[in-house]
Amino acid sequence: MINGLAIDQHESKKRLSVLIQGAVQGVGFRPFIYRLAMDLGLVGWVNNSAQGVLLEAEGSQEQLGIFLQRIEQETPTHAFIQGIISSLLEPVGYRTFEIRPSTGGIKTALVLPDIATCPDCLKEILDPTDRRYRYPFTNCIHCGPRFSIIEALPYDRAQTTMKIFGMCGYCQTEYENPLDRRFHAQPNACPECGPQLTLWASDGKVYASGDEALLAAADAIRQGSIVAIKGLGGFQLMVDARNQGAVLRLRQRKQRQEKPFALLYPSLAMVREHCKVSELEERLLLSPAAPIVLVRRQADLGPTEEVAPDNPYLGVMLPCTPLHHLLMKELGFPVVATSGNLANEPICTDEYEALQRLGSIADLFLVHNRPIARPVDDSIVRVILGRELVLRRARGYAPLPIQCQVAFPPLLAVGAHLKSTIAISVDQHIFVSQHIGDLETVQAFEAFQKTITSFQQLYELHPEAIACDAHPDYRSTQFAQQSGLPMIPVQHHYAHVLSCMAENALTGPVLGITWDGAGYGLDGTIWGGEYLSACGVRSAHLRTFQLPGGEQAIKEPRRAAIGLLYALFGNAVFMMKDLAPIQAFSEQELEIMSKMLTNNLNTPRTSSVGRLFDVVASLLGLRQKASFEGQAAMDLEFALADIKTDEQYAFKILGTEKPFIIDWALIIQGVLEDLDRKVPGGNISVKFHNTLVETIIAVAKRVGEKQVVLTGGCFQNKYLTERAVHRLREENLQPYWHRQIPPNDGGIALGQVIAAAQVLGITNQEINSCV
């Protein structure tokens, strides 16, 4: 028995029919099959189909058995086999083995993410004797654009944005040779027949073309200019990361006050000079996904402080395309490489659109004429507990799916409002889109709609229902309301739990710890400090407090602090002049705050752990106003430094029946006492983090759940996550957390699909059997 086939070595020749499912297109799978068949003396054919790779092979049953074994054992590097369906038939008398044209059908084949430049292609572009020397669009079957250029399945050149470039004789010969590494490499091109670079002024005037354009762009960056560069999945804005004036000018023009910029380094060696880089972080930087990796800064060398103000981490990446390799080889120093957009707008993908939207930011535009099918931003990862945690899932990761054990009905989920992604279910796959962004602007909402259309067209999806967040004011929810499809609202934090359960293939009961900044609660309050069951019922939650100013309090930690302190001390809090949040207001502002809280005017109640982080950050004087989401929580995490202690504050759990209330009163009183005693802020922060973790242990024991899921934006915090996992294991509880799907709102859409499937009648056990 080999791969499910009963092999009789004494029987005559047979015909083997095989469907290989998974990420098997655009990775050299057909030439791999061709070479394997030739090596074994088999005849037949192989092609791409909308379901994956189809093939038939004739030979002895022993040969066919070995053939199947070697397919699994010798799979190409970037391929991912999810299933092999095979059967033995009577032979039809094939004479040769050939690679046939692609076929259609129901579309379930996996689209591969864009892949970073392979060593062979890099060697070619740096070799003066090679015909692709310094050609910035060099690629082969092992690397190059995939998701960013594909327009339809199956993955053939005619269904990509490369269809406008006719191949020259040399490239066509490579493309048609099964033994060449560019055989059916759909983006295959060279300087004679492929895309070309040009350098534009902000008015569209052409300064230079070809290699001269690249050299001129490099020189402009050296001189302190801001250059917009059309990359793989959209534009990036680049400046010399060492040049304080240039970085500050980019911040002003991009309207990005303090949020860290990503950095592109010319080499791993230079990253090591400036940062502490672990072995796993090195592997991630050099991986085919080539994401931005958060690494700890170790010296005041290289980038100016304005790249990531008051932040001990830098988000760094290495070149992922020939264009980036060539540019960074010319420069030899790190550059800011941030998304080509204004704050809260989507990344630009078209050069003419970029002139309009980025003309007030960039001094020059390095563009090319290969169209981008869809925007794909850079992914961001962080190493936590010795494994990668994806914080923004895009280039290199999207759109690989979560695979489930049962077939789902066709569903569309439209995610949340911040860090937007969408998801669709196709048979046994749930595809989560690339990062779209916050749906704050008209442009962002248009990008959201285009992503939905793109996924529906790619997989010819006709959804039976649309899942959305329960928040009625989210633009994604309003889109669902207007779609004409049956709408299934899903509570925000429940979607978080289901997302983490799906990624970890959990089926049993769990305690879902869902901590974030805000989410629409079923009781009309703002949730965010939730301890949920696997069916979304609250086992416990944080004690609520008022947020004076509502949405404004999210941007001003001082407001959250006033709201919580008012719950503790009433109007007496306004007389505590030595407290940092009180000092952050004028007397007139304090009078307004008092009236708002006393009369319940625009002071919604929240149970958010994210806002509790804001409160403590405000009390410690770390942050009174935030310029980006989560900034105060980051300050509190960074204040930990390398302090190690098991100290914690006291806390109470109120109530005798679920949902229990986690009362923060003793925690805050402990913080205030430590402030009076002049305890350093870092020590207070550690104790606060430790106390939050102990609430998880206490609730898990009280409700009797062994499996504990950690999800929500607060678990982007390295110390919080690692401490929680360590303590849960110490208490013989089993923790689960995210890896490939973000714990923040970028993972919400996946959970919405799972919840919608529940509503449509698929049982919990079935829908949670995901891998």
Describe it.
There is one protein chain. This protein is of the alpha/beta class and 771 residues long. Helix content is 32%, strand content 22%. It has 24 helices and 30 strands. The strands form five sheets. Strands 6, 7, 8, 9, 10, 11, 12, 13, 14, 15, 16 and 17 form a twelve-stranded mixed sheet that branches. A hairpin with a 4-residue loop joins strand 23 and strand 24 (538-542). Helix 13 (492-503) crosses helix 23, helix 15 (557-569) crosses helix 18 (609-619) and helix 18 (609-619) crosses helix 19 (631-638). The longest helix has 23 residues, at 681-703. The radius of gyration is 28 Å and the shape is globular. The two termini are 26 Å apart.
Notable characteristics:
alpha/beta, 771 residues, 7-stranded mixed β-sheet, 30 strands, 12-stranded mixed β-sheet
The number of helical segments is: 24
The proportion of residues in beta strands is 15-25%
Largest sheet: 12 strands, mixed
* Approximate helicity band: 25-40%
Query: How many β-strands, per DSSP?
Result: 30
Global outline: globular
Radius of gyration over alpha carbons?
Answer: 28 Å
Average pLDDT taken over every residue:
93
Q: Return the structural class.
A: alpha/beta
Spans where pLDDT lies below 50 across 5 or more residues? none
* Spatial gap, N to C terminus: 26 Å
